[in-house]
Amino acid sequence: IMSVAVVLVAYVVLTTGVPVFLHYFVHGLVSPVHVAMAFFCGLNALICFWEIGLGLHISHIQGEYKKLKEAYGKVPMDAVVAFFLEDLTLNQFLSSKYWTKVWSTYSLYDPSYQNNESFGFFIDVGNGWTTILPSILWMLAMTYHEFIPARTMGCIGIAKFWQELYGTCIYFLSYVFNGRYKGRTTLEVVLFVLLTNGLWFFFPLLGIYCSWRLVESNSYAVFL
């Protein structure tokens, strides 16, 4: 049994490190572009799992959110710390219902995630179902090039990464337009909104660039 924070760090290290090792074993080099995309695709696959749970367990999330708001409404940072310090078993790690705590806790900063009528709810649930398999496919094909033709992979990538980029931009616009940052400190907004969601802005941009290179060159040279 380890804490949620330790398990998440270990997951990111493994899902980045193993693909990088295999890439080096197959091609004899470490590519910064490959490292970046392996990090993002591995992370995105986990988030997709959580996003699928967001849709499946929204009623449970709404109930959790009400309890958390009563307990931590004025100090949401304490709820975040408590969640990351929780002990986590293997069964819990594999349970989409356990990870609803991500959404009920994040909803203390942005209540749209416990509202099944909001854009944030639907774009994330949609991303979860539609990008989990492409993320895994990219992790494999970046190293094992015979797995799928480069141009096909590029077309899949353009669709996947554009969807993620567009969704993030609209989410930021919705967050700012509706003033959901009001009442929060600058540090909280930077950590829990700009930094976390910003990953789904910058890495999809890199993914679109890689996809264009795959299509343009009809090769995987961008990862070599």
Description:
The protein is an all-alpha fold and 224 residues long. It is built from nine helices and two strands. It has a two-stranded antiparallel sheet with strand order 1-2. The longest helix is centred in the C-terminal third of the chain and has 32 residues, at 186-217. The radius of gyration is 18 Å and the shape is globular. It starts with a strand and ends in a 7-residue tail after the last helix. The model has no long low-confidence stretch (mean pLDDT 94).
Distance between the termini: 38 Å
The topology string of helices and strands comes to: EHHHHEHHHHH
Percent of sequence in beta strands = under 5%
Largest sheet report: 2 strands, antiparallel
Please mark out the parts with pLDDT under 50 across 5 or more consecutive residues, or reply none: none
Number of strands: 2
- CA-based gyration radius: 18 Å
The SS-based structural class is mainly alpha
Strands side by side in the biggest sheet: 1-2
Question: Helical segment tally?
Answer: 9
